[in-house]
């Protein structure tokens, strides 16, 4: 049922589900929920980067009219929470406290400026905010660490027991052995890199710096928690409702069955809303303590201080290549400034930083090393393209430089050295083989689309406007992460119900899910109903994360729909007088060769009378790895008078396996691309070098997101490589679209100006001095 | 008491002097379609239309809105009778996560009311007060398509 056969639902540009709910304002987001007697809670954030709380007194705040409750570390259970994972072979989430659990609900130590140290609940938000000023806090200041170098000094204060280098537990990879103390977080070698460099005709070594950035979903995080004495109901802005349920139940001592999490509509996630934060814990605890519903909503500043940032990395990249165009050796050292806790998993630092070596799989000699350090800054975590966006910026810029020194076209150089279909996924996944690689088509079609033949030698324009073209390749997980479960069932009236555990974060998953089930059951997509985003109504699952919606849940739904198909034919066989295999399911009917048929409604009623339900459950364990690929092409115009960079055109050619819904795929690639433009040119969280640890731009005026006037109409080229593990050939694409954008722009800026910028974001403040120093001494 | 006229409905409310229109709409009038993304006038998510102009509801005090004609996303159209923008945004995947969508559509509605045949540049300028993190191309296309549908065949 893959390429070639006629499909009726898959591949169509159907309007996304619930889109009219969004465009009419009816879609209910978490903090739109209003309950009778609801309290409003606000968190008190620390003003010191590192300090022990020696006194904290909420009595004056509690005395204020309208204030109902206040909590500090003295009032909450001292149980650690944070990141946790699936236990293989179970298909459900199990907390593993051996994993990184480095956060208390509230702590007596502030570890960054903005750390949550108390919460106040009042009858309205303004009363709660005013009461915060009456909470008395005294700190014993401690000397903090703010850079990886400071964090790794032998005499550095330890932010967590065991030191400032983060060492995740086993299970990251077959090759990963957990270290301790001053060991690097990850370190491994394949082949003999030194021999590879000795063989090289060209060596490029450069240090790249990537900034902290913020995911900046337009909806700030928030939840409403309501304990009715039996059940704790939570409406939450989360990508992972079952993680929220599991952690809250564990930490607060409830059964999972007592906690219900609703996350139907989430106002942007981008991977960044997939972990459990303090706000959910605190809202739940406040509702348990007061017996009233509690809303705890982040403001924008809270998002900046206590969302999760994209980590800042310093990448030392060394690449050697021979004159015949072979890459002979790659060495990458990644020093990561992570922030104060690791509730956002560090695992993708490994995946992401090693994937360039997977991308350049033809190179036999690689060495990879990462030092991931705790510092007294806000914590890092997942954000679209996590792991890959940072490291592949460095790698793809270096690859461009190597190609230039070899005097070969960067596209041909990439084609020669990148991974081919069928290759073993070394070094990360020995014994697994990649099945779909659409990279060549991405590069060829993307190049044709932008007119790559127009590319000139670097610095060809005299100015003040200089144009340039650049490209980059990229890869990111196609969605193979962690076990998954989803369900298809017939209602008693025969309605096909698609039950997906994933919230709607805007990625179009629900629509693709409907199309997949409709295809498998040979019916119109509009005749299937999708239910989602409620832990009571769906099966336990990891959440919408790692581009896994269409790949993992899509596969589960196909399995479930096939079971439904079988059950329907089995049931109909006796009545229609044919064997099940002689019947076919079409347009919500089971049809016999003689033309007689039974409708889904009739069959559901028959099943109902027999006390049965027609339903299928698809479960998958973590499966072989799958990757999405992309090639990005940027055309830029650099204004040498102002230092401004205008992205004139951006072409995103992405291997999505197969587009279940091309409209949605385009939208995903377009959106990812503008986030990549922000990463390249304007976005950076700036921490005060003097008053250390203080974020200088915690708002959307000073933290510059691309606006509708800053970006081109992103052009998309959809490449379909037909992934064999998916029933319809699809793989994830929501993140791949971001990864290659920044390096394609940096390479285009090089082509325009002849200057390599290795430090993101590439702002006028960096461009103007570089142009100045590149100017010949006697020129005007 | 302050007299407010929202989506053609008159309200007489006692509101404190410091209360913003965004708070009044959401907390008192239960018009939750208007979203708040920043509370400091930097994101535009809370955009509503006041006397035919797009305005950040978090940046105006409710008391200053007395006797003005205000329109929110709920007043623009309903599921059964949607405005052209609400249809083109929905069908064209211009509402991805949907959070900036009400503000974006209200800014677009104000634009189309003063410019029936906007160019792409007009749309970019007219919507530049509202940030979106999900992508702009589909929003620009949906706005242009709604303009075409409203002004009929060229």
Cα(first) to Cα(last) distance of chain A is 66 Å
How large, in whole angstroms, is the Cα Rg of chain A? 27 Å
The helix count of chain A comes to 19
Average pLDDT over all residues of chain A? 93
Count of distinct strands of chain B: 5
Largest interface: A-B, 58 and 58 residues
Low-confidence stretches of chain A: 86-99
Strand order of the largest sheet of chain B: 2-1-5-3-4
Overall geometry of chain B comes to: globular
Oligomer: heterodimer
> What structural class do you assign from the helix and strand content of chain B?
alpha+beta
The residue-averaged pLDDT of chain B reads: 96
Q: How many strands, which pairing sense, and closed or not: the largest β-sheet of chain B?
A: 5 strands, mixed
Would you give an account of this structure?
The complex is a heterodimer of chains A (780) and B (154). Chain A is of the alpha+beta class. Chain A contains 19 helices and 32 strands. In chain A, the strands form nine sheets. In chain A, strands 3-7-1-15-12-13-14 form a seven-stranded mixed beta sheet. A five-stranded mixed beta sheet of chain A has the order 9-19-18-17-10, sandwiched between helices. In chain A, strands 22-30-31-32 form a four-stranded mixed beta sheet, sandwiched between helices. In chain A, helix 9 runs parallel beside helix 10 (388-406). Chain A is globular. The N and C termini of chain A lie far apart (66 Å). With 154 residues, chain B is α+β, with helices and mostly antiparallel strands. Helices cover 36% and strands 14% of the residues of chain B. Chain B is built from six helices and five strands. In chain B, strands 2-1-5-3-4 form a five-stranded mixed beta sheet. In chain B, strand 3 (47-50) and strand 4 (53-56) form a beta hairpin. In chain B, helix 3 packs across helix 6. The longest helix of chain B has 15 residues, at 137-151. The radius of gyration of chain B is 15 Å and the shape is globular. Chain B starts with a strand and ends with a helix. In chain B, 58% of the residues are buried. The mean pLDDT of chain B is 96. At the A-B interface, helix 1 and helix 16 of A face helix 2, helix 3, helix 4, helix 5 and helix 6 of B.
